[in-house]
Amino acid sequence: MPASVASLTKTDFLHDYRLGWESRHASLAGRKEVFMGKAKFGIFGDGKELPQLAMARAFRAGDWRAGYYRDQTFMLAIGELTLQQYFAQLYAHPDVEAEPATAGRAMNGHFGTRFLDEDGNFRASAEMKNSSADISPTGGQMPRLVGLAYASKLYRQNPELHQFSDFSVNGNEVAFGTIGNASTSEGMFFEAINAAGVLQIPMLISVWDDHYGISVPAEYQTTKQNISEILKGFQREGEGQDGFEIYRVNGWDYLALLETYEQAAEACRSQHVPALVHVRELTQPQGHSTSGSHERYKSTDRLSWEQEHDCLLKMREWLLADGHASAEELDAIEKEAQQLVKEARTAAWQEFFNPIKQERDEVVELLNKLVAETGTENQLHEMVEALKHNTTPIRADLVRTVRRALRQVREQRSASRRELQNWLEQALADNADRYNSYLFSQSEEAVGNIEEVAVAYADDAASVDGREVLQACFTANFERDARIFAIGEDVGRIGDVNQAFAGLQEKFGELRVTDTGIRECTIIGQGIGAAMRGLKPITEIQYLDYLLYGIQTLSDDVACLQYRTKGGQKAPLIVRTRGHRLEGIWHSGSPIQMILGAIRGIHLCVPRDMTQAAGFYNTLLRSDEPAIVIECLNGYRLKEKMPQNPGDFTLPLGRPETLLRGADLTIVTYGSMCRIVMEAAQQLAEVGISVEVMDVQTLLPFDTDHLIVDSIQRTNRVLFADEDVPGGATAYMMQQVLDEQHAYRFLDSQPRCLSAQAHRPPYGSDGDYFSKPSVEDVFDAVYEIMQEADPKRFPAIY
């Protein structure tokens, strides 16, 4: 028995027993609150208490968690969740002080610590017990877990990082992950297990095995119904060998759990070996969630077995059998735990509901004044009475009532009407902060706060391949900031497939420029976790088409991280990829519509050349916000001038650049299409059509200064062009310009979109020509617009 376990006393045992029952009663009370209508949905951690208590005893300051929605006992045990906060989250309390994990934005069971201060800067995570913010998609925590553990490896093995003691103490931090047995069927679980084994990182993953995944038993989930059995090949052969340490333990055996977690955590911490703890024979007393009863799908025998093997009852049996406590002591603990939960639940509800009740009373008073002043009692009486007698109003009820009341008195003009309008304006602003804020960083390192530095060229600037500009940019940034590293397929030894990292591994070492396996999902995850721990990762997805393998992780995790924690967490990850034109179905993609729809909360840069790309990298590597940069596949060997300041000049995001001035029509485009459009513009000029060409440069954010509408105000016509599918990014750009910038006011012709075909481009030059917009397509689209406007000057061509 490890010394730390052997040193535990009766006080320690009863402390854990008390915490276990507090958590259990919180689960039981939470289910009742949902059924009473005080919460929308509930999912709880009952039945998993003992292994989480044991895991918490092995968890130290500086460690990290990436778990899922059963981990309430663990969070209570490490002191990063109170019972009142637990219920505040169940009620969706939108106050970050009351519910610090998500400010009411995530459903209950979604835990996280605030590792940023009020200004959005990193706290000293090495001194804290840290939990990355949970997400619901099962297995979705696994990619991030790889990165959290990988950061410890970098902090230990790279001497340049030893100065960052706020984030790590010699890489001693362990990343603890938890997952349900059914979710180990997810591909990202296996990918993360393999990645951790290859990387040899301090990742401790616990599998809570209660035999079911909602209603589906293990025989439909896992080969041999045993995840540790099928992972035997990952078991390392001895100390110093690569692989995993794999442990199996019953979830109701308290002492065995304590010993197992102490051993597993020590192996991770001291040797940087990953470990898997398969916690078997767990139960789920209330079933999966409040959506239904497990009696519908569990047999009588199974339900009886679960009652007998309830981990808290088993702990009670052990405490009594070994003489650590009397039945009366344990009864008192259970009763006190139930009372404590009741008090926390009551306090949380009052703290959540009383402000709403006060707002309701204020609205009723304002409405009564309006009735008295305008004589509209018949119109508003029923509405006011319904709100007044609503015993559990929500803020939507208040705003809905006020908006409808103002609709009723729209022809009235009175002081009370204006007072009600003022209340509504303030309520909408307050609720925008509660429910719509913090999609992006609000710190001093936000993208918009990065100083703009112009690119500089010597008079005799050399003309070089575009890839060399990127190479110079990356070299300068790696020299400037030791926290920057790059990972990806072929990034290291050969310097990426297009040579922008050529020579950088030799110069900066394998820890900073690193090859990975073919595993896009966990390349992204490796970057997320490392970024959470204060590093500056560039994660490369070799081709844009393969971003699909990582889009779920980007969408569910990175994109909403600032939002779902209301500024409590961030992951300034840069995803570098290349796309648009090359050859074939899987190497010519421009799936921008898919990306735009999935990643709100991540910036999307679409530079037309490598100098523009370098400017974005320089900006982003000084920022604390995540971004995707899509380089043009056919641009690496095109000639560009080498800047004098390749690592220092910065480009603002959200500012289009006018590439060509014109008078007749504005073409809005980006990326590889810029060259196509510019060539078409020359040919259009030959027939007397003057086009203005605007490169949007970034799609998220999009034209924050509304420069495009200024152009349309001069030309009165517009064409949106790109290589995405019909109705994709061209439609997005049109919506932004017409809806947001109100450019419709200045149009003399129908706005048009020119996009690629709906299918992916086939292989070969002809496939490209007939699938994506060509110079001739751009020419014809513009000419048709002008021909409709002035048919005499521009007679039909075809």
From TrEMBL:
**Gene3D superfamilies, per the entry:** 3.40.50.920, 3.40.50.970
The protein's required cofactors: thiamine diphosphate
UniProt domain Transketolase-like pyrimidine-binding: residue ranges: 464-638
| CDD domains in UniProt | TPP_E1_PDC_ADC_BCADC
Alphabetically sorted, this entry's keywords are: Oxidoreductase, Thiamine pyrophosphate
Q: Which Pfam families match?
A: E1_dh, Transket_pyr, Transketolase_C
GO terms (molecular function) for this protein are: oxidoreductase activity, acting on the aldehyde or oxo group of donors, disulfide as acceptor
Q: What does this protein do?
A: E1 component of the 2-oxoglutarate dehydrogenase (OGDH) complex which catalyzes the decarboxylation of 2-oxoglutarate, the first step in the conversion of 2-oxoglutarate to succinyl-CoA and CO(2).
Record protein name field: Transketolase
Q: Which organism encodes this protein?
A: Hymenobacter lapidiphilus
